[in-house]
Amino acid sequence: MSLTVIELFGMETDLGLHGQQYQWLTTMYASHPWIITLNLPWTDSSEILPNRWKVGLSLSIYMTGWGICLICISAVQNWSQLMALRALQGFFESNISPGFLLVTGMWYRTEEHANRSLFWQSSEGFFSIVCNLILYGIARHVEAVGGIAAWRCISLFLGSLTLCGAIACYFILGTPHEVRWLTEDEKIMATARTIANHVGEDTVGKKWSWPQVWEAFRDPQLYFSFVNSFLANIPNGGITTFSSLMYETFGFDEWESMLYGCPRNAVYVVVFLVVGLYTQKVRNQRMWVMIASCIIPFAGLLVMSLLPDTAEYKWIKWGMYMMTVVFSLSIFLGWSLIPSNVAGKTKTTVVSSMTLIAYCVGNMGGAQVFQTKDAPRYVSGTVACSVCFGLQALAILLWRFWYMYENRRRDRLAAESGLSEEERVQQGWELAQEDMTDMQNPNFRYSM
């Protein structure tokens, strides 16, 4: 959020950005995590770090680095310095979402993964509204009083806020075995809740398994997750980078753009909470919701792109752009399928890492889809994003069909084995404690 907001208040002019330099800031930000991930398992960085250190400590370290980078951005004098800091930001950001996924998988049952992931993700929309209003006030004050540039003040504020979050993270977050605010008995109880997941208990410290690596690359799940993440994040890279500027293309000024973006964030919060409650009440609906979250922005972006560039369509375009807010559901629900459906510590790390690579590469490409020469409407970029949503919906549908086929095959084999339901559950739990993967454990069933 920070770069798209501060760009509105003179950063581009102050630093003399031109051509595709603004887009390259997002590309550089997204490039670092997937390069790190390729070093597995020889590095403690990125995705593997939470598996060797305490999760809460790891996340707080990364958030601290992220906050320091934001504060330093307030002092940059040219594009090269900003590019270097954006690269560092990408490094520190790379562990945040995988870390929260790991925490979710350790604390909650399979049927709870989707709604818990959506609940904590909905906070992004809420704090975007709060921060946008605060940043609006900061920018207005700076404009009236003068002094340091508004975008530099905003960077200082966001960096300081991130450091406060890092401190809170250190004392609160972690797996059930790590946190300080549970007694030993409560830690055992918290771990016992997730026995039925058949993914084992705390995987921290378990050895790297090369057979699980080879299995991960033979598993269709890895490729479905990769394609879903890649296709979703091409639009994500473009829409996130140009979210504030998009309102200006409709005919709003920079101040209106900041305020009229708040309703979109409010819809984001409501949609995520509603879907979270729905997936909690009705099981195996995640992938249908993912498909819907691709079709709605597909239609919204397409209509927005094809409408004439006249003032009379300004609010219609605003409404069509509002429809795109749901696309994030396909990203986060897709991520929530990993702790639910991938068992084995090493295999989970590999699938998560490949999904993160797709996330980063998609964002890198998405920022470049919007070419400066296409301003102010960026029709080619918005149409390309719409096509990605259509292809993503098809990929998710095939993904769900594969899960349905595999579950039915396993049910048939279970019926032939003669084991009772209780025996099957007990056997599944025992195999999970041995760090067996979902393909090795015949009692594992995939959540959809």
Labels describing this entry:
single chain, 448 residues, mainly alpha, Growth Hormone, Chain: A, 75% helix, 0% strand, globular
Looking at CATH, the homologous superfamily is: MFS general substrate transporter like domains
CATH architecture: Up-down Bundle
**Cα separation of the termini:** 31 Å
Please give the CATH class: Mainly Alpha
Protein name: Major facilitator superfamily (MFS) profile domain-containing protein
GO molecular function: transmembrane transporter activity
Keywords: Membrane, Transmembrane, Transmembrane helix, Transport
Membrane topology: Multi-pass membrane protein
Can you offer a commentary on this structure?
The chain has 18 helices and no strands. By secondary structure, it is mainly alpha-helical. Helix 10 packs across helix 11.
Topology of helices and strands:
Elements: H1 2-15, H2 21-37, H3 55-73, H4 79-93, H5 96-107, H6 110-145, H7 150-172, H8 184-192, H9 210-218, H10 220-250, H11 254-260, H12 262-281, H13 286-306, H14 314-323, H15 328-341, H16 345-369, H17 379-417, H18 421-433
TL;DR?
This is Major facilitator superfamily (MFS) profile domain-containing protein. With 448 residues, this protein is mainly α.
